[in-house]
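Posted in: Structural Biology > Protein-Ligand Complexes

Title: Requesting predicted complex, zinc ion in pocket

I'd be grateful if someone could produce the 3D structure tokens for the following input. Sequence and ligand are given below.
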Amino acid sequence: MMCFQHRENQSIGICKSCGKAICQDCFIEFPKGLACSAECEKDGKELVEMNERGKKIYGIGVYQTNKLASGVLIWLLLSGVMWGVVALNYYVLAETDYGSAAMAAVFSIITLIVYRASKRTGLNC
Ligand SMILES: [Zn+2]
Ligand SMILES: [Zn+2]
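-- Reply #1 --
Done. Output follows.
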């Protein structure tokens, strides 16, 4: 392929932003890419940044974890606290706190729904 701007030159790469072929005389190098112009360099860097953030959000590659998504953890914690209140009332006061038990059950169901949703989307937040 020949350079988009210098037809006589053999291209050495492709612009990350606009996809045009670029040669030794006109390429701009930046981490993880090449660009044909300052504008494309800016856009290309943004694309790289977007990729990196996407990897973090979806837990891909180096960002891969087996940790639960923070949304799931919060609901898990809330359910745990509510069940704790129910257990405490039951054992200490010998009373069944139906209100708290109902809340705990609802929180547990929400935890399950959020967990399943996070598994389905693969979102890590
Ligand atoms: Zn370009
Ligand atoms: Zn060129």
